[in-house]
TrEMBL record:
<dbReference type="Pfam" id="PF00067">
    <property type="entry name" value="p450"/>
</dbReference>
<dbReference type="InterPro" id="IPR036396">
    <property type="entry name" value="Cyt_P450_sf"/>
</dbReference>
<keyword id="KW-0349">Heme</keyword>
<dbReference type="GO" id="GO:0004497">
    <property type="term" value="F:monooxygenase activity"/>
</dbReference>
<dbReference type="GO" id="GO:0016705">
    <property type="term" value="F:oxidoreductase activity, acting on paired donors, with incorporation or reduction of molecular oxygen"/>
</dbReference>
<keyword id="KW-0560">Oxidoreductase</keyword>
<protein>
    <recommendedName>
        <fullName>Cytochrome P450 55A3</fullName>
    </recommendedName>
</protein>
<comment type="similarity">
    <text>Belongs to the cytochrome P450 family.</text>
</comment>
<keyword id="KW-0408">Iron</keyword>
<keyword id="KW-0479">Metal-binding</keyword>
<dbReference type="InterPro" id="IPR001128">
    <property type="entry name" value="Cyt_P450"/>
</dbReference>
<dbReference type="InterPro" id="IPR002397">
    <property type="entry name" value="Cyt_P450_B"/>
</dbReference>
<dbReference type="GO" id="GO:0020037">
    <property type="term" value="F:heme binding"/>
</dbReference>
<keyword id="KW-0503">Monooxygenase</keyword>
<dbReference type="GO" id="GO:0005506">
    <property type="term" value="F:iron ion binding"/>
</dbReference>
Amino acid sequence: MSTEVSPPKFPFSRPSAALPPAEFAKLRATNPVSRVELWDGSHPWLVVKHKDVCSVLTDQRLSKQRQRPGFPEMNAGGKAAAKNRPTFVDMDPPDHMRQRSMVASLFTRERAETMRPHIQATADALLERMIAGGCNPPVDLVEQFALPLPSFIIYGILGVPKEDLEYLTKCNATRSNGSSTAAAASNANSELLSYIGKLVDKRMEKPEDDMVSKLVVEQLKPGHIDRLDAIQISFLMLVAGNATLVNMINLGVVTLLEHPQQLADLKANPSLAPAFVEELCRYHTASSFATRRVAKEDIILNGQLIKAGEGIIASNQSANRDEEVFPDPDKFDIHRKRGSEEALGYGWGEHRCVAEGLSRVELEVVFSTLFQRLPNLRLGIPHSEIKYSEPSQDVGIPELPVVWD
């Protein structure tokens, strides 16, 4: 009689609210490289220690190409999407850096810093409009602030006319909101793609000073990429980090309200915003399933043989709570003393999020501004009624009713 135990089902579920799955801590202590079972019956490897995750994400013997047999897809939608034309996030060297470099200069930390006044002005304008509307009944912070802020910024970089901002933001909300029906989300996705296609065509006729024009002038017209590539790259930059950033704003607000002394510290000293953002991006990992690979050849990882063709899920969510790297990792501490170690919320290695610099500046603006303008901002519902994403999905808050005095 066989006594072999089937691998546990993955993704694991959060026990409640935004708490990470308990299975990660157990595996870090007992079985840091182990098999799990996905929805399709496949058995990829799950890697949970910080050092091992970093190793996976920098190992050239592992592939990011989703078209390769054995690449772990988290659901049927992901498997279908893997058949689409890839962008640089799904490419290996040298194609990855060749395409990534077409837009990377627009998203450096230095470039983002030059945009800080514009981001600040956008945040101020959204808050002015929100405050003017009052909070009786409670206001959904997502609809009024957390969603439009990053949306307006990325649309501006792409070259979307101001008069189209509201329309596209609504499309993107429908596309990414977990409560939307599958049909509504699919239609919104198609509308966004169609819009980007028309914008590419307009910039073919009349280029301007924006990302779509840069792709058209430097890459499409010389024949380095085709029209579909230009559309897909632009669409990727439009949607890739938007929902994640919205969720990080919401999670940041809730986390501060859960830690009133640290909120008081931030109110008294808004220059703590970068330290708060750093800890927020360690404590909450709003994009935890993107760091996946498939082995191109046999490798040994932490004493475990991973054979060619086997998939790997490198959990940056688990790595961000690794006790060997972050002492007392389940404690949120804006004053946490940090050395050279880094959290992995933005990934690691050459596939690290291309827009990390912009994302950090946006979050710093939000959390150096929000509670200064609204020092008495608080939940408009009981804490127990906050709606979180499904427990087996990336942690997020699709709506957040708030009030203020």
